[in-house]
Amino acid sequence: MTPRTVTVRVPAKVNTQLSVGPARPDGFHDLANVFLAVALHDTVTVTPADDLRITCTGPDAAQVPLDRTNLAARAAELLAARHGIEPRVHIHIDKDIPVAGGMAGGSADAAGALLACDALWGTGASQSQLLDICAELGSDVPFSLVGGAALGTGRGERLTPLEVGGTFHWVFAVADGGLSTPAVYREFDRLTPDAPEPAAAPALLDALRTGDAKALAATLTNDLQAPALSLRPSLAETLAAGTAAGALAALVSGSGPTTAFLCADAEAAHQVAAALTASGTCRAARATTSPAPGATVLTD
Ligand code: C5P
After folding, report:
1. Which residues does the UniProt record annotate as the domain GHMP kinase C-terminal (predicted)?
2. Which CATH architecture is the domain 6-162+292-299 placed in?
3. Among 106, 89, 88, which residue's Cα sits nearest to residue 97?
């Protein structure tokens, strides 16, 4: 019997290394993208319905499109089309990941909807078929499905899983309003006309493998940080406030404007989160940990 409802939990991500190459003829950029899933989650629930419908709850719900431009709707449509069925499903997103924040929230919803619809419809797609659909939906979507830690090459969609030897403690400072990812990449192109071909940094991979937070702090890099700061100069104040409060390292998360602070332990993370909240340089600050598992079915 097929289930009546399926709920999937999907993590956010931070990029511990985001090295960006020159723009390709297709407009995308080759990346060396070291993804780490973090324990902030969206929850996607699917239920049979007369037509494809999306609803959303959560603090940022008003910013989420509820039409077929939502990546979760496109995920359901693509899976249905591949299996010759109609996407008659109500997708409900309980959103805790910042919207347009550089934490792959939209990608998480797409991966979550895909896995949930696969279970609801009994389509039985293999992991590699699901990953193919994810890559068609967006560069970060495959990683949202698998979680943990991985090196993304190509435009970020070709994944090699990475070992992580411990728990890392992070604080994420949520900014007011989002930043457009294409706009941040365009600014990167303007600021970096001669970008070299990107490559993963061995020291960073070692730091992940050994679970050494200080070593990881020394190797975190994000090529989209300078363009994000150029478009949103006030983020420099948030980064400075987190560093002053004792974070081991501060950086823009992905294309921003969320900022990420790596901390020595859980206590330091709570102190940094409290200081960032009090600083008035961000809308909210959240302490969390990594790595986190990828999209996971909770009930079916
Ligand atoms: O793949 P996704 O739809 O998430 O990408 C959103 C936008 O980000 C792309 O349209 C492109 O402007 C930019 N991008 C890029 N190079 C990548 C990934 C994304 O230029 N590797």
Report:
1. 205-279
2. 2-Layer Sandwich (3.30)
3. 106
